[in-house]
Specification:
The structure is a single chain. This protein is mainly α. It is built from 10 helices and 3 strands, in the order αβααββααααααα. The protein has helices at 2-26, 40-47, 51-63, 98-122, 125-139, 148-161, 165-173, 175-188, 198-212, 216-235; strands spanning 35-36, 67-69, 75-77. α1 crosses α3 (51-63) and α5 packs antiparallel against α6. It is elongated and about 65 Å long. 28% of the residues are buried.
């Protein structure tokens, strides 16, 4: 028993040391927005330890919610959003983990499905032109221009088409959290910031057409599908 303890203690101590160094590294501003960690072999060399020692530290980091591992891919640092716009009246919210992102997406799902439904019920021509313009912007995005703002603009246009200021207020106060979730999803998929995902464009198109058709039930359904697919893309799962 004592012999086993003597053999395992150095490994535990070394793993704790690596864990402390990893935590210090991820506290640096460069990692605040998240990102992909170097390969395990490279990190092990950097810290001067074996891969088994490094993996013990990485397990602790995952349990603490600091990193997430995507199946068949690498380890990704989870971004942090500790502040929401100062113009809101709500208490500051923080996104620390993928679980937080899923909760944010769930709230968006409730709000945006209702907004799409009301937008289709009103079927306001001027508001629909705003949605069409936002959709066109994603289709004709200039090379090098980030897609995040164009994507968010589409969802805001749908919210505005509902003619209910609470929808736009809710999305506006979540802007930082939504942006962080979108950025993290793109990093997981290793997609350039200016690359428009065809699946997203197609889903947006279905939302637009349902609203133009004045079909509230269909608009809710297609927006619900879009939001569920967004969660699937975040988790790196295959849609069934």
């Amino acid at each position: 028993m004592n012999e086993i303890t003597q053999q395992t203690r150095p490994l535990q101590d070394l793993s704790s040391h690596v864990l402390a160094r990893l935590e210090a590294m991820l506290d640096a501003p460069a990692w605040h927005g998240g990102g992909r960690l170097p390969p395990e072999a490279e990190l092990a060399r950097q810290f001067g330890v074996s891969r088994p020692v490094l993996r013990k530290a990485l397990v602790k980091m995952r349990e603490a919610g600091r990193i997430v591992s995507r199946r068949g891919s690498a380890n990704f640092v989870q971004p942090r959003a500790d502040v929401v716009p100062a113009t809101t009246d709500i208490q500051s919210l923080s996104i620390q983990t993928v679980f937080d992102m899923k909760r944010c997406m769930r709230f968006r799902q409730v709000v945006e499905c209702a907004a799409a439904e009301d937008a289709a019920r009103l079927c306001d021509p001027e508001a629909i032109r705003g949605i069409e313009e936002a959709h066109r912007r994603m289709l004709t995005l200039p090379r090098g221009e980030g897609v995040l703002e164009a994507d968010f603009a589409f969802h805001m246009a749908v919210a505005q088409a509902a003619r209910n200021p609470y929808f736009t207020f809710a999305l506006g106060t979540m802007r930082n959290q939504i942006k962080l979730t979108m950025e993290f999803t793109r990093k997981l998929q290793e997609r350039p910031a200016d690359q428009v995902a065809p699946r997203v464009v197609e889903e947006h198109s279905r939302v637009l057409e349902a609203i133009k058709a004045g079909d509230p039930a269909l608009a809710r359904d297609v927006m619900n599908f879009h939001m569920r697919q967004s969660v699937i893309r975040l988790l790196g799962e295959e849609s069934g």
